[in-house]
Design a protein that fits this description.
The protein has 77 residues and is mostly helical. It contains 3 helices and 2 strands. α1 packs antiparallel against α2.
């Protein structure tokens, strides 16, 4: 007899978290374009893009870019 997936009280299956798709990778340019649509700070974005290119990080997940961008933003000059 095979076990059936159980449902949580909210009605969600306990298998839904195991089948979540991994975050897809985007290019550095695509990330910078997305951020520039939200923020109007071209010097900050240009500096971030320069640092990322120098580190040869040209393709990564958006969350990884976002975390590094926020850290770059807080870096003292």
């Amino acid at each position: 007899m095979a076990k059936q997936p159980t449902a949580s009280p909210e009605g969600e299956s306990n298998l839904s978290t195991a089948t979540a798709a991994p975050e897809s990778k985007i290019t550095l340019t695509e990330f910078c374009v997305r951020v520039s649509n939200k923020q109007n700070r071209p010097e900050l974005l240009g500096g971030f893009e320069f640092v990322e290119k120098a580190a040869k990080r040209l393709k990564d997940t958006e969350s990884a870019y976002q975390a590094r961008f926020e850290a770059f933003e807080r870096t003292p000059v």
